[in-house]
């Protein structure tokens, strides 16, 4: 499968951004340009069944990882995965070979499947209208309400349900966690205290964003960007300084 891709910046210092379920690459409408201004060439695909990419009702977490790997450059300096995108990043991590991998508000052990996820996802898609988002996500800007409402219309729940079935009851932790971090909302509805401790013990650096919510890239953009840059090597940041070039496609 060929994925639609959104890009910001240029050059050969790459950052890869993977969005979460029911979203699209547009979720990075602030983070992508900010990383480009830091000097990165930012590449953000729409994952299968999301945004402008085709659905795949037989998808698995492995097929998502394969599609993402085919759409992004190998060995990027930075890879970021939000929620479901973090799960995809974990499965792809060994082959992607990122200099640093950051997982946004997602644990990497999954619970066994409890019933068919498809009806719940269809109901979630139906309710994610602009009025519902304004009421339930008051920290979203009007641009972000529009981005999320559009993404819900584009989202294929059958693709995501197949993904969830394949990912249930698994430990997705990458073998090499020495260049990995977890950026978690505090409190988090998605990452338990036990999972934070487990990932920290396995080598992850853990950052907590006090008062944050799951969509850290929206209401907590500055805190998220600071956490991502904090974990990058000083020599890379020095090389990037002044090299940023903005743009989008």
Report on the structure:
It comes from Pedococcus cremeus. Residues 16-220 form the AB hydrolase-1 domain. Pfam families: Abhydrolase_6. GO terms for molecular function: hydrolase activity. Keywords: Hydrolase. The longest helix is centred in the middle third of the chain and has 13 residues, at 84-96. This protein starts with a strand and ends in a 9-residue tail after the last helix. It has a single domain (5-121, 156-240), classed as Rossmann fold, CATH 3.40.50.1820. It has 249 residues and is α/β, with parallel strands linked by helices. Helix 2 (61-71) crosses helix 3 (84-96) and helix 4 packs across helix 7. The chain is globular and about 50 Å long. It has eleven helices and seven strands. The model is unreliable at 244-249 (pLDDT under 50). It has helices at residues 31-37, 61-71, 84-96, 118-127, 130-136, 142-154, 157-167, 193-202, 216-219, 221-230, 234-240; strands at residues 5-8, 14-18, 41-45, 78-82, 100-104, 180-186, 205-210. Strands 1-3-2-4-5-6-7 form a seven-stranded mixed β-sheet, with helices on both faces.
């Amino acid at each position: 499968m060929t994925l639609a891709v959104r890009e910001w910046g240029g050059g050969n210092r790459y950052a890869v951004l993977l969005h979460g379920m029911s979203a699209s690459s547009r979720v990075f409408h602030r983070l992508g340009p900010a990383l480009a201004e830091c000097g990165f060439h930012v590449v953000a695909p729409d994952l299968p069944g999301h945004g402008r990419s085709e659905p795949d009702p037989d998808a698995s977490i492995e097929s998502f990882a394969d599609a993402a790997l085919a759409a992004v450059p190998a060995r990027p300096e930075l890879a970021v995965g939000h929620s479901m995108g973090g799960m995809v990043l974990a499965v792809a991590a060994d082959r992607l070979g990122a200099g640093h991998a950051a997982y946004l508000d997602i644990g990497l052990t999954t619970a066994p499947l409890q019933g068919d996820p498809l009806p719940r996802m269809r109901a979630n898609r139906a309710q994610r209208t602009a009025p519902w988002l304004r009421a339930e996500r008051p920290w979203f800007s009007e641009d972000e309400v529009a981005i999320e409402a559009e993404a819900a219309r584009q989202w294929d729940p059958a693709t995501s349900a197949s993904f969830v079935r394949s990912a249930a009851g698994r430990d997705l932790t990458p073998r090499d966690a020495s260049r990995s971090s977890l950026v978690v909302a505090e409190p988090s509805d998605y990452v338990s205290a036990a999972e934070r401790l487990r990932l920290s013990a396995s080598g992850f650096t853990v950052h907590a964003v006090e008062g944050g919510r799951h969509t850290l890239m929206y209401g907590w953009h500055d805190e998220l960007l600071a956490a991502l840059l904090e974990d990058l090597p000083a020599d890379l940041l020095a090389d990037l300084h002044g090299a940023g070039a903005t743009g989008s496609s």
